[in-house]
Specification:
single chain; 260 residues; D-Maltodextrin-Binding Protein, domain 2; 2 domains; 9-stranded mixed β-sheet; 9 helices; 25% strand
Length: 260
């Protein structure tokens, strides 16, 4: 019994005193559903099943003793304003792009992006209407003209622009699907987990829209920390990414089963 008490004390000490002076952190995420990382279209978190990454961060709060506050904002504002100016300490989730280092920091090892500390990897895929003759061979869309719909500020936008696609940006994949049904775009590029979740919840969309294979690209997604936070707390920043990795390894698959 005495040994168990000592172990509890040690655990409390590690949790509350190994993260320096950091007592609370503010994280920002998108106010549109980014399934499964955050659910619902709102500036508030869902009361039930708020999202896989939300739950991972709340587990981190328990482990570290750092109070976590999560704010939902339009994506570009969250990344290019709140995170960049240090109003937010962290942001989820973002794929790595060199230019995003202007807005915040990614986990690195020996100066290179450390993929072992991503939250998970997700595929970008094309969606088209079921009566469309558009096909995708992994490099090119065939029988395709016009614009591709994609969410504003997502990394896939610049990727597709670089290879010559005209992109019609919107506030979210649900809006892109509406545009495609209305013949305003002829294909949609979206994160597969998000696009599939929208189709599963909307029978009208599902009856009209199909997914094309293969994937456009698969990317690891990270929790970013603000450059200001990392500069002030470099050791703590690494401990946070390490703690999130450990929680991910232990709990992510269990959480994903709950959401799928």
């Amino acid at each position: 019994m005495k040994l168990k008490f000592i172990i509890v004390l040690i655990t409390m000490y590690v949790s509350f005193f190994s993260f320096g002076e950091v007592k609370e952190m503010v994280f920002v995420c998108e106010d549109k559903e980014d399934f499964p990382s955050v659910t619902g279209n709102s500036n508030e978190l869902s009361k039930v099943n708020p999202g896989v990454v939300v739950e991972l961060l709340l587990k981190m709060e328990t482990v570290t003793g750092i109070k976590i506050t999560i704010k939902r904002l339009p994506w570009k504002r969250a990344l290019e304003s709140e995170l960049k100016n240090g109003s937010a300490d962290g942001l989820f989730l973002a794929s790595y792009k060199k230019e995003r280092e202007l807005f915040g920091s990614f986990p690195k090892k020996d100066g290179e992006i450390d993929e072992s500390r991503c939250v998970y990897s997700s595929r970008y895929v094309f969606y088209t209407l079921k009566d469309s003759e558009v096909t995708y061979d992994g490099k090119n869309l065939h029988n395709f003209t016009g614009a591709v719909g994609a969410p504003l500020g997502y990394s896939i936008v610049e990727d597709l622009k670089k290879i010559g696609f005209i992109i019609d940006e919107s506030s979210g994949t649900d809006k892109d699907f509406e545009k495609m049904i209305g013949k305003r775009v002829n294909a949609v590029a979206a994160l597969e987990m998000n696009g599939d979740a929208i189709l599963s919840k909307n029978p009208q969309f599902a009856s009209l829209i199909k997914k094309l294979e293969p994937a456009i690209v698969s990317k690891p997604y990270y929790i970013m920390l603000s450059n200001q936070f990392v500069a002030k707390n470099p050791d703590t920043a690494n401990k946070i990414w390490n703690t999130l990795r450990d929680i991910r390894d232990k709990d992510l698959n269990i959480l994903l089963k709950k959401y799928f």
